[in-house]
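During the no-cost extension, the postdoctoral fellow (Dr. R.K.) reprocessed legacy sequence entries with the updated structure-token encoder. One reprocessed record is reproduced below for audit purposes.
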Amino acid sequence: MDKDALKFIRKITARYRVDQAKKFRLKDVDPADTWKLDSKEDAERLLAQGVGMLNDLQEKLYAQDKWAVLLIFQAMDAAGKDGTIKHVMSGINPQGCQVYSFKAPSSEELNHDYLWRTSRCMPERGRIGIFNRSYYEETLVVRVHPDFLQSARLPGELITKDIWKHRFEDINGFERYLTHNGVLVRKFFLHVSKGEQKRRFLSRLEEPRKNWKFSLADAREREHWDEYQDAYEDMIRHTSTKHSPWFVVPADNKWFTRIAVAAAVIEALDSLKLAFPKVDEAKKKELSAAREALEKKH
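Re-encoded structure tokens follow.
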């Protein structure tokens, strides 16, 4: 990879990675921040380069067939998760990428532990798995709406004031387990401001082609904005670790969100030292024989 490009990628990635989790405060991250990028045009040019890098790295990941990569996206409504996934992963071979969106759990899912439904969707070796929302919803929406815990039919004695602490511990253990088994985990919180969310909601209402994106539930959840901000901050503080860090990415400018996420994914894949498998002597002889046979035939 080009040294200058890698230097840029490392700088922008370091800016939004949560390294000192215990001291993290959500209000310290400006949702409108664009670092040193001043124009949408520059960002789109850089994103196009990044998509090319991702394509090359993903090809090696798939061929090597040893590592798996899990990318988790969490955000408030209208923060741009779908668009970020679409644009950043636009150059990836569909065979090497798996995307799952997690809505409200089904009756079958509620009859299992809360990690069950996501565990079934973990990426295979050689592939990139993307979770659009994830098991973290069980520390967010369920925390803001504690009555949802009743739907999970947990034994009453397990629903205590320490339940969120226990869930953070469980998730940390689960992600450590994934890491020990060759699954690289990277997590993204797309940080949108309340004002920008309102603007995007109004856009969805005013433009007919966007009407399908809006529901009354979105507006109702907005009433719990402060509670969600507190829940996200606590979640990030307790679950951003060295092996599975959170990246809190400014999301008021979609063009910047996409380049920041792309940079973090490129750096993650580059850290795996990926390469196409080397062909041993036996395989070389087999290929040579195949060439000979092909050249003899008309």
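The mean pLDDT is 93. DSSP finds 13 helices and five strands in the chain. The remaining legacy entries will be reprocessed before the final report is submitted.
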